[in-house]
Amino acid sequence: MADWRTGWKDLIRWLWPDDDGDERLTPDTAVSVPAVRNALGKITCHVGQLPVHVLRKRPNGGTEKLTTHQAYEPIKTRPNPQLGAFDFRELLIAHSIMWGDGKAYIDYSSGRLQLWPIMPWCSATIYADGEKFHAIKIKDDDQDPIWRLLDDEKDEANIVMLPDSEVIHIRDFSFNPLGGRGLLKDGRVTFKMALNADKTLNSRMQKGFNGRLLLEAPPTAFRKEEDAKEFIDQFNEYHSGTENAGKAGLLRNGIKAQVVSSSNTEEQMIEMRQFNRQEISLLFGLTSTMGDTSGDGYNSREQKNLQYLLDTLMRWIKKCEEEFDYKLLTPAERRSGVFFKFNTAALLRPDYAAQVDSIVKLRNAKIITANMGLELLDMNPIEGPDGDKLENPNTSSPPTEQRQQRQGEQVPQNMNEIETAVEHWIEVECKTVLDAAAKQKNFVNWMNKHYAWWQSRLESCIERLDGDPQLASEHCARSKDELLQICDIAKQDELVSMVSELVSTWPQRAKSLSERIGVLC
Predict the structure, then answer these.
(1) What is the pLDDT of residues 30-53, one digit of tens each?
(2) Residue 392's pLDDT band (cuts 50, 70, 90)
């Protein structure tokens, strides 16, 4: 490598000059703009928090997780001893957005895969002998782990050349196939305009009163021009500056004060700040402007999240997936159907009640099993073969002897056992609702989440009694309607007493529900 690398010394000196006297927009000054900090943090945080899995396609369809693959732990939990997976991906995307290139060194020297971020300000990408290389400038006093890992490979100019196969490289948009442009370059003018607007506003705030004031004095107020000038100087000295804000003023000798409304220049500055926020959002690929709350209804918020995923995040997700597939998998693994996949469903996850309802519909349609639904809710699976059966619980009725020992409950043989079970359910429901009315700050929100779970629980219990699971839906709907009627009329200090009075009548519903279950037994 030394025979051709010497010819690149002039290029390396040009890429990293020892003394750059040109005043540049630095990352620290750029992120000091609130709109930049918000947009950058939003995108990098979401890419960092999305789960990533190593999957393999099954011959008969579907996929399976490869938790034993060497790249599974580094990508999912800990790329190296110093960084977690969230921080690693967040840093990689931040480098790509701001500098145009997010890079990480693929290290196997410890006997297992580790990924170490490469700082973009000390690296460059070049072609040599028809191959792609990444040049890294190493400093002896650098505390970056890359210095300790690659110190033995540097040449006399402290340059290390890494082949592209040893570097994860996430590029921003560019006309150059070697590297991305980055917003420190493309957003230079917009960022500086935002900084100048902030400086102007801060300067005016430091001066105190921002409006214009005219003092109207009668002809006899001042005898000489010097007296008028002295009065103006003293007036400005007493009232200008933030330390004098709120002080009372005194006008005498018939002098009147007139406040002049903001000038066109001030209004243009306000419009310019709003325009800068919109321009910064466009630079980051965000489809909505920060501070814009129009159309924030529930449905439009869901659509905004989907649009944000497709228009903003998906380009970074696909770049990462393709780079991980090519650099961290062998050709044989790729041919066998192994690939990396971001779980974007985690970003679009609905509220708890809607999620439970969707899972119930998927199971009734025989699309998922009970254990697959429990996994989506982060709950423990059902032990035994029943949890992995692809069946509709409303239409599938296994033999009685197969259901006799589910969750420690025997299948009842007479009406007395049915009534005892139903009375117990309603007693538990009454106590739970009354306790929540006394402790929950948002009782209606709790009620929606609770009854989504309670209905699913009652359906399973009624099924074990050979009853129709639809009875659980009717029972829960009636309970919710009665509670909502109380919430509409009760004051905060009356809620507990009115709920207590209501649930005291619920045990009377046990006999009717028991009879309806018993008819189907």
Answers:
(1) 888 888 999 999 999 999 999 999
(2) confident
Residues 223 and 178: their CA atoms lie apart, in Å, by 77
Both tokens assigned to 33: 């703009």
Q: In what order do the strands lie in the sheet with 159-163?
A: 123-128, 131-137, 159-163
Find tokens 């340059």 and name the residue: 159
Q: How far from chain centre, in Å, is Cα 33?
A: 20
CA separation for the pair 415, 423 (Å, rounded): 12
Going by C-alpha positions, the residue among 337, 346, 307, 313 that lies closest to residue 76 is: 346
Three-class DSSP category at 509: helix
Q: Which two tokens stand for residue 242?
A: 């933030």
Q: How far apart are CA 254 and CA 231, in angstroms?
A: 14
DSSP 384: S
- The pLDDT tens digits for 233-284 are 887 777 766 666 666 777 777 787 776 655 555 666 777 778 888 889 889 9
Q: What are the beta bridge partners of residue 31? A: none
The distance between the two most distant Cα atoms of the chain, rounded to a whole number of Å, is 113
Chain-centroid distance of CA 38 in Å reads 12
SS3 of 55-101: EEECCCCCEEECCCCCCHHHHHCCCECCECHHHHHHHHHHHHHHHCE
- Rounded CA gap, 54 and 67, in Å? 7
